[in-house]
Amino acid sequence: MVRRATGAGGRQRGARRPEVRLPPLVPYDGGGLEPDGDYDGVEFTEADFAGQDGRGARFMDCALTACALDEARLHHARFLDSVLTGIRGVGTDLAESTLRDVELVDARLGGAQLHGAVLERVLIRGGKIDYLNLRTARLKDVVFQGCVLVEPDFGGARLERVEFVDCELKGADLSAATLKDVDLRGAASLEIARGVDRLSGALISPAQLLDLAPVLAAELGIRVEG
After folding, report:
1. CA geometry: angle 204, 111, 156, nearest 5 deg
2. Domain assignment present for 19
3. Which residues contact 115 (CB under 8 A, 6 or more apart)?
4. How far is C-alpha 113 from the geometric centre of its chain's CA atoms?
5. Hey, which of 54, 110, 156, 163 would disulfide with 136, CB 3.0 to 4.6 Å?
6. What is the CATH number of the domain that holds 99?
7. Is 69 helix (H, G, I), strand (E, B) or coil?
8. Taking a C-beta distance cutoff of 8 angstroms, is the pair 198, 216 a contact?
9. Is residue 226, in this structure, part of any structural domain at all?
10. How far is CA 157 from CA 90, 111, 117, 170, 177, in A?
11. Average pLDDT, the chain
12. Domain count, the chain
């Protein structure tokens, strides 16, 4: 059943966006990522991290611009108060990572693994992300704005105060997901492949309800004939 998600007083609670203010940054020395590495106030520009191992690394007050992350191993990494612009990569492993007060701008990613990750106060603006794996992840105060998400997997994830603004959501999987104060009204397109029954806790527009009617009817076992 689709209903209006409400907070106190029956009103939708909007997402809190990150307010990242970077300090003066130190240019990256090009030494390569290290497991459990500690990067504080570093500027990474056009760095090639393809295939590198940065498991458990901590990025605090950092800027990553036009960096390559193909097959980079960043399992359990932490990105805090950082801005990632124009990053690209296929098969980037960010499983069980933490992104807090982060802006991800114009990313081009395919098959990024963020299952079990924690995203809090994150803005994902522009770009295209194919086959994003967010299974069992926790998203709180996250905004997807002006981006294209192709077959994102939110299976078993918890979404709280998440907004989709002018973005395309294609073939989303919401199986076993939990939604609270999730605003889908601003999505430019909304396609739910699986888990339409999990939309309780989401706010959608009348037009979106009409678009989802065939999927909802199928989920409820309703036959519609002329």
Report:
1. 50
2. no
3. 95, 96, 133, 134, 135, 136, 137
4. 11
5. 156
6. 2.160.20.80
7. coil
8. no
9. no
10. 22, 17, 9, 17, 5
11. 93
12. 1
- Residues contacting 11, CB < 8 A, separation 6+: none
pLDDT digits over 109-155, tens only? 999 999 999 999 999 999 999 999 999 999 999 999 999 999 999 99
Task: Identify whether 9 is part of a domain.
Answer: no
Q: Look at residues 181, 140, 163 and name the one whose alpha carbon lies nearest to residue 11.
A: 181
Mean pLDDT, range 160-179, rounded to an integer:
97
Which tokens in the block code for residue 105?
A: 């701008």
User: Which residues span the domain enclosing 207?
Assistant: 26-220
pLDDT band at residue 57 under the 50/70/90 scheme: very high
**CA–CA distance, 144 with 59 (Å, rounded to integer):** 22
**Residue range 153-181: mean pLDDT, rounded:** 97
AA identity, residue 117: A
